[in-house]
């Protein structure tokens, strides 16, 4: 952890770049104070930061010297820019609405006028003129309160990484644009260089969560990536197999930073919005999974580089830990009470033989294929200028494991974020089975379909728990809107006649949930 980030800024272009970096790490509810003498560049810094958040170099961002406060609506949050130089006392802060900014990003010039009234989630930025080789340059010092300290450290890591991989001249020519993330701890920014772009991936090493079983956290049991090494190693393996995974141009394991290929913004939802038929996209993605049948996952990924990563097994322990997300999170949300111990035990007892059938096992070669884990629309990018399987860009695979090939197919065919019609779901299963049978005379289509039903039920059970947890624990309530879709998919999977014991448990144990209109 650092106490302060100190950066020498010799030119206006690098001041703009620093403001764009700070904009990447700003959150709703933050306060950014700007200190320095008259003419130090506080308003200039604020203008660059606001324009970055607005996504426009031409946006009008006047100084609030006379208005005292200016407001801006950005795609991420409202921004309020205060200049307190002319206020005479704290009473005037209330008149300006200074204390009504918890849901905004607040920029404050002359914060000395509001000491004792500054936010607790705060970046403090001091801009000073100094001499460097007989020339006047600006020295910027950034500190943070405890709540924002982690993000200050990530800001420092990004700054150090960029300075290590770009010359001073090149740094002055790049621009940084924010990219919206998802539920993970990773962050991305688009680095614009001339007419091209690459992505800056920020994936810090994360500590394990609380112990839940056998002295291990959930992330340990589920084999979730805890730093950027697995992403880099697996990306290289997938590229060797012919997939359009991002090219890795630079990687710093210690800082958790990577510079990677920019595959663009045409994730499946965007491609559909631009007119590409859903069936064309999903069928092309299913072809990628068929192709992977000929390229099984190695025991260790990235052996040809310095990020060797043993690929874990998607085994019964992982699957049961994922299943437990339903009784832990969705059950109380749906039924209004905590699940009893005997009911939880019966849940796992009913699931046990099905999990034993599809979990990775040394005795069963059918369960030793790639499982990319989240092979669905938010992580699939349409690349129409490429051919064959390369038309599908693949991201978010750092948690890949070795398991049953049906898992990724049901991730695709039962997409958690977008409606997949039942007819398309069935067609994708047929497409895969037909192609696999042509490739392998011993392929058992009936067994594969049964496995797909089991894994589809397991995955959607897990997702019910995850989406509820994101709402209840993390305040990300938007995920609840997907629950009706997930429940529908779960119902499709439980229609398989050989899954009757599972269907019986869900019918009996989530009876109350079906009567809750807010969950349907």
Description:
By secondary structure, the chain is α+β, with helices and mostly antiparallel strands. The protein is 40% helix and 19% strand. The chain is built from 18 helices and 20 strands. It has helices at residues 12-25, 42-54, 91-95, 149-165, 168-171, 218-221, 229-240, 268-273, 278-292, 316-323, 325-335, 341-358, 406-413, 422-439, 445-472, 483-494, 500-509, 511-514; strands at residues 5-9, 31-35, 69-73, 78-83, 104-109, 122-132, 135-144, 174-179, 187-193, 196-202, 211-213, 216-217, 248-252, 257-261, 300-301, 309-310, 369-371, 380-382, 392-394, 401-403. The strands form six sheets. It has a seven-stranded mixed sheet, covered by helices on one side. A five-stranded antiparallel sheet has the order 8-9-10-14-13, sandwiched between helices. The chain has a two-stranded antiparallel ribbon with strand order 11-12. The chain starts with a strand and ends in a 6-residue tail after the last helix.
């Amino acid at each position: 952890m650092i106490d302060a980030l100190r950066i020498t800024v010799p030119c206006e272009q690098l001041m703009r770049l620093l403001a764009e970096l700070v904009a990447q790490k700003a959150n709703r509810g933050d306060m950014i104070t700007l200190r320095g003498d008259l003419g130090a560049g506080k308003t200039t810094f604020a203008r660059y930061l606001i324009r970055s958040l607005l996504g426009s170099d031409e946006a009008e961002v006047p100084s609030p010297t006379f208005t005292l406060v200016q407001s801006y609506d950005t795609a991420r949050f409202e921004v309020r820019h205060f200049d307190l130089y002319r206020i005479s006392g704290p009473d005037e802060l209330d008149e300006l609405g200074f204390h009504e900014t918890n849901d905004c990003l607040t920029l404050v010039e002359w914060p000395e006028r509001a000491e004792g009234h500054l936010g607790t989630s705060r970046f403090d930025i001091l801009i000073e003129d100094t001499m460097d080789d007989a020339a006047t340059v600006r020295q910027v010092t950034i500190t943070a309160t405890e709540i924002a300290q982690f993000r200050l450290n990530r800001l420092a890591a990004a700054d150090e990484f960029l300075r290590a991989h770009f010359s001073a001249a090149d740094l002055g020519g790049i621009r940084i644009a924010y990219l919206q993330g998802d539920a993970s701890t990773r962050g991305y920014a688009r680095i614009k260089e001339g007419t091209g772009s690459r992505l800056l991936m920020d994936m810090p090493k994360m500590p394990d969560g609380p112990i839940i079983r056998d002295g291990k956290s959930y992330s340990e049991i589920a084999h979730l990536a805890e730093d950027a090494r697995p992403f880099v190693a697996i990306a290289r393996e997938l590229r060797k197999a012919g997939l359009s995974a991002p090219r890795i141009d630079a990687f710093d394991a210690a800082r958790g930073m990577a510079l990677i290929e920019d595959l663009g913004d045409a994730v499946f939802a965007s491609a559909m919005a631009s007119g590409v038929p859903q069936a064309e996209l999903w069928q092309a993605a299913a072809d990628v999974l068929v192709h992977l049948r000929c390229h099984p996952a190695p025991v260790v990924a990235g052996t040809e580089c310095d990020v060797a990563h043993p690929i874990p097994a998607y085994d019964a322990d992982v699957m049961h830990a994922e299943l437990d997300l339903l009784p832990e999170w969705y059950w109380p949300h749906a039924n209004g009470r905590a699940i009893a111990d005997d009911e939880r035990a019966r849940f796992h007892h009913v699931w046990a033989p099905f999990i034993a059938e599809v979990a990775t096992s040394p005795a069963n070669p059918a369960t030793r294929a790639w499982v990319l884990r989240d092979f669905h629309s938010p992580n699939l990018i349409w690349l129409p200028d490429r051919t064959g399987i390369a038309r599908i860009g693949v991201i978010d695979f750092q948690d890949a494991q070795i398991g049953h090939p049906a898992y990724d197919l049901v991730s695709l065919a039962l997409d958690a974020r977008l409606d997949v019609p039942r007819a398309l779901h069935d067609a994708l299963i047929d497409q895969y089975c037909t192609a696999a049978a042509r490739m392998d005379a011993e392929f058992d289509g009936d067994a594969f379909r049964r496995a797909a039903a089991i894994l589809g039920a397991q995955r959607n059970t897990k997702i019910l728990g995850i989406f509820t947890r994101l709402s209840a624990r993390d305040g990300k309530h938007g995920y609840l809107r997907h629950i009706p879709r997930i429940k529908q998919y779960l119902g499709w999977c439980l229609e398989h006649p050989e899954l009757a014991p599972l269907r019986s448990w869900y019918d009996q144990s989530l009876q109350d949930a079906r009567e809750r209109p807010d969950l349907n």
